[in-house]
Design goal:
The protein has about 350 residues and is of the alpha/beta class. The chain folds into three domains: about 1-70, DNA polymerase, domain 1; about 110-285, Rossmann fold, CATH 3.40.50; about 305-360, Arc Repressor Mutant, subunit A, CATH 1.10.10.10. It contains 17 helices and twelve strands. A nine-stranded mixed sheet has the order 1-2-6-5-4-3-7-8-9, sandwiched between helices. α9 (about 155-165) links the parallel β4 (about 145) and β5. α1 (about 5-10) crosses α6 (about 65-75), α11 (about 210-220) crosses α12 (about 235-245) and α15 packs across α17 (about 335-345). The longest helix has 16 residues, at about 125-140.
């Protein structure tokens, strides 16, 4: 029987987690031999309880490893075991690393230079903007951005990498044929073309709450550091940061406003010793990665702006500002401000938010 198919079969046995699964395969010398073992042989494995043994025996009656592997591969999904050459090397180092990974896309040697970006699902515009900007600069410096495909900061992290044609990896808390959230299906397809989707959960596994802490240990484990951008006091992102510390990874955090609940978690991380991040150099320097200097000149320097456009741009910052306040501060006419804002939006220097609010991007 094929070894990989047997790894797949054992991985699906209830009660046979990463640590126990390795004990079983180590004892028998291979996954195939472990799958073929009888009850008496299984009882000889130290630490394997009778309930798990019965689960293995029941699975052998109901499950066909070869058929399962064939069905998975027909969907364009690869099955990786920790013995495979393209299994993420960083992930092998952690405690209870997943013995089996489902992969769609490709993991390359350069993905060892990876950083995770995680944060709030209910991110502010500030958080989304900073995330996309830092993610883009990371991939420009040869870093693979890893996140969890969730709403908010995760989505912005993947998008920021893709906009710069960089590599990004999404770690899912469900089966690879169950994209969650559903609105990120197109994003997931783009990630497959420029990186990978990975999961330790079998196909058809729904995105249940208990899956995500397990998913988070992979996000941190596959990387050399974790950057948290906006996280409430009790947040899944803080769980990822805890895993990172346990795994010997670096933890970074972007500070936020002290009045914003979405920044309580990140600000606390900084108080506890996380590296405060103000720019990309803070991350690269800490990890000993080379910084590729940017072309001199800001985006607005490279665009020919009118006098009115410069006045309006100078009145804006990263905090949303209402149109009435812009009119009052610039002392320009409504038509001048409206025209300037329109041109600045087209140039990508300003973003309009609901409620006649504008921010500098």
């Amino acid at each position: 029987m094929e070894e990989k198919a047997c790894w797949l079969a054992l991985h699906r046995v209830g009660g046979l987690g990463p640590v126990k699964l390795r004990k079983v395969t180590d004892y028998f010398g291979s996954a195939a031999r472990a799958w073929e073992a009888n009850a008496l042989e299984l009882k000889e494995v130290k630490g394997l309880d009778i309930r798990t043994i019965n689960n293995i025996l029941e699975a052998k009656k109901k499950f066909s490893p070869e058929k399962e592997l064939e069905a998975i591969e027909k969907l364009g999904i690869q099955v990786l075991t920790s013995n495979d050459h393209n299994y993420p090397p960083n992930l092998k180092e952690i405690y209870a690393s997943p013995p089996v990974l489902y992969l769609k896309g490709n993991i390359l040697p350069e993905d060892q230079k990876a950083l995770a970006i995680v944060g709030s699902r209910k991110a502010t515009f500030y958080g989304l903007r900073i995330t996309e900007e830092l993610s883009g600069k990371l991939v420009e410096n040869g870093v693979t951005v890893v996140s969890g495909l969730a709403r908010g900061i995760d989505t912005a992290a993947h998008q920021g990498a893709l906009k710069k044609n960089g590599r990004t990896i999404a770690v899912l808390g469900c089966g690879l044929n169950t994209i969650y959230p559903p609105e990120n299906k197109k994003l997931a397809e783009q990630i497959v073309e420029n990186g990978a989707l990975i999961s330790e959960f079998p196909l058809h596994t729904p995105p249940e709450p208990n899956n995500f802490p397990m998913r988070n240990r992979i996000i941190s484990g596959i990387c050399l550091g974790v950057l948290v951008i906006e996280a409430a006091k009790k947040s899944g992102s803080l769980i990822t940061a805890d895993f990172a510390l346990e795994q010997g990874r670096e933890v970074f955090a972007v500070p936020g406003m002290i009045t914003n609940k979405q920044s309580e978690g990140t600000n606390n991380l900084i108080k506890q010793g996380a590296k405060l991040v103000q720019n990309i150099e803070d991350i690269l320097e800490e990890l000993g990665w080379h910084y590729q200097a940017e072309v001199e000149g800001t985006k607005e320097d490279l665009i020919d702006l009118s006098k009115q456009e410069r006045i309006v741009l100078e009145a804006l910052n990263s905090q949303p500002k209402h149109l009435d306040n812009i009119l009052r501060e610039t002392k320009l006419s409504f038509s001048e401000v409206f025209t300037a804002l329109t041109e600045l939006e087209i140039s990508g220097l300003v973003v309009q938010l609901p409620g006649k609010l504008f921010v500098r991007f």
